[in-house]
Amino acid sequence: MKKKLLLLLLISASFHALAQSVKGRISDEKNGAPLPGVSILVQGTNTGTVTDADGNFSLNMADGTYNIVISFIGYTPKIVPAVVSAGQSAPLNIALAESSEVLGEIVVTGSRSGGRSRIDSPVPVDIIPVSQITNSVGQVDINQILTYVAPSFQSSRQTISDGTDHIDPAQLRGLGPDQVLVLVNGKRRHQSSLVNVNGTVNRGTVGTDLNAIPATAVEKIEILRDGATAQYGSDAIAGVINIILKSRTGLSGNVSYGENVTSYDKNYIINNNKDASVNVSDGGTAQVGLNYGLKVGQKGFVNITGEYVKRGATNRTGTYTGQLFPAVDGKVVDDEVLAQRGLTRNDFDMRIGNSEVKGGGVVVNADIPLNEQLDVYAFGQYNKKKGNAAGFYRYPNGVPAAVRTNVFAVYPNGFLPEINSDVTDISAAAGIRGKLGEWRFDLSNTFGKNDFDYRITNSVNYTQAVSIANFQREFNAGGNGFSQNTINLDFGRKFDVLHGLNVALGAEQRSEKYTITAGEEASYKNYDVAAGVPAGAQVFSGFFPQNAGSHSRHSVAGYLDLEQDITKSWVLSAALRFENYSDFGNTLNYKVATRYKITDGIALRASASSGFRAPSLQQRYYAKTNTLFVTQNGQQVAQESGTFTNDSKPAEILGIPKLKQETSQSFTVGTTIQISNAFELTVDAYQIDIDDRIVLTNNFNDGGNANLKAQLAAANATTANFFSNAVDTRSRGIEGVLSYNTRFGRNQSLRAVLAGTFIQNKVKKGADGKPIIHASDILVQTKQVNTYFNREDLSRFEIASPRNKQSLTINYKAGKFGAMLRGVRFGEATYWDPTIDPDKPDAWPVNALTGQKETLDQTFGAKVVTDLALSYDVVKGIGLTIGANNVLDVYQDKHTHSGNVSSGRFVYSRRVQQMGFNGRYLFARVSFSF
Predict the structure, then answer these.
(1) Cβ–Cβ < 8 Å for 795, 831
(2) The TonB-dependent receptor plug domain covers which part of the protein (predicted)?
């Protein structure tokens, strides 16, 4: 009844629209052409509109004096005064000047007051004009686009890492994928159901699949580089990424194709790094995107996007130098068997590179006014993609003796098992917003769901092959699902206090569900325990029925957000948020921020905030047995590792505590300098302290405990790992953006942007200089703390990702011709060997080639990737772009340690990646807009 009454009040209030109006026309300063789709906003309110096809607009409002914010991608924004008297005002006919610069554009992320420019924001916000960028770069997905234009953002495609091959994890400020909150049109986006459980940089985390949103559908992306939990809730520790969908009218689209044309040192181990290179053409990527928007009434729109991407696999494997076939009478017979079968070692190559992915999606974005003070909106997306990746090659010599007869009858040369993914991602949001008296309001519901299913091919369950010659080779291994529903009610009002006080308050209710679907029986079952061979589908065994099921939780939250313009130069904001979770209780967080203009062109800004991240349902309930390859004496050895929940019996035996939330304290201080419209500089320094960081532990064996051994055996596992709140960290960094923008001659413009980030992430340490690890007494007593958290885990937090990144982008346009030159420097990254004690070099392994003691530690030097694109406007509305990413064909450093970790197979590290290792990529794109 209450909900019906509220709806009636809203509808009743909507019919009291006033007749007063502000009208005008927005045009291009250069040629006078009308500009459709320009954003018109009354500063400090949610009242606004967009221009129609003829550049005209109309706003109804009460008598008074207003500032009207006019902004449009590609043009310098303007704020102009408007005085409404006796129901009318003078026409606002405004000409906008073209500009490649976006630093002054109006932002909506990080502030609820509305109408602040990026340079005036009290917190650092990057604006990425995706709709402009996509036509001049070779990258086709959001993760890769952001990696090369936003230094604080980092995403590298992973390889030989199960599901993580198919969904790219991403970082902000070097923190985890689940420590950045993703919004779409200002509404919370759901996470992926995938848990990164392999040895990637982001091991143990759960992120958001940004690539499920077609880049063709995106107008711009705002990246708030500041803690914002008090404003937006859980996960916003490192910052917020707000993806703003297109709302423009008309027809536009693009068609592109590109592929890697490169060379790499495939045989550098087998040929002692001489004459080692091979030429490669692979990774062909075709992309087709189409966007259409139509006007609904004077201010409404419906915008629809469709996109399809087909990305071919890449392979940068090295030549395997180890033993291929079983020995005969103690003698290695590889050369004889290869010659007999007409094979070479190249026939046993692994696939180390990008997975193959193909799929597409549809996005709808709509906003329809009911009257001058009330409108309804909706947006949503459906994305479907299928991927294919491979695991470790099962060489004949590695096939268990008990099954060789039957396995060799099918796979005489061993086999390369494949993981095939089927990922479905959907989201839908709808709401109503407008004015209720003097208050702005926004009532919305947002739903999202991600399903990730696995099909294993070219494989075998060894326990089945013991006695069955015609064994199963393909398996449905089950999958994971995650869904999230969020209800928001937000209110805001501007008060005439000093130079303006904006009050925002609201409530949120969120429900989440995580599901595990069991695989078919043959994907996980041990058909012959006595045989002593690994059970389940090789490369990725299925999910057990006992682990299948659904797990849910819900939370409620309320917030208060104040932003006071004390003077024209000084802004002070504060926010407070309370949340209650059904599975771990309450949390209260705050944020304060300020900006002070010393002069019209120079300002100082600072913020302080607390934050938290609720442990994801995926981390709480993920349970599965995986085949992992771990390093032992310089070689990769298969190990069946079970991931168990924190309330499991193995966790109880080892003293692993239940998960709790991560908490944080964040501080930022910075300056903005604007000299005329041509030059801008922003510099910000930050510190983020995070307590109780969640990690995925390493693999515990039974240690002679019969009870634990039995628990592991029941899961077809020989070791166990868990999610746990293991360490505290401190992150510090400096981020800067320097831009220069000018126009000269008749039709020429030049824009240059130099941006950089410098990151120092540290696990907090004790007086002895060693990490402080939150381990149980049981682990301390049994001397298993190093298994709980080891040197490689430490390196993942501190040094395995680039510790700094800088980019210089130059855009030049002369009439119909345009050029883009970009250089991105990825800083050094380091791998630490978890098997050694750095303080005991006498115990280090001996390099078989040099006879010297060594570790597998390695620092990978900084690399510069250069991109070049040339564009030409063939006719009005149609453009052609050709270019190259990584035009100089730069690779990260090769492995240098003994045995190349895996007998030559991994030329480049899969544990440490700076910009990936695909080499030069050539592309061509045709774009159109009508």
Answers:
(1) yes
(2) 119-240
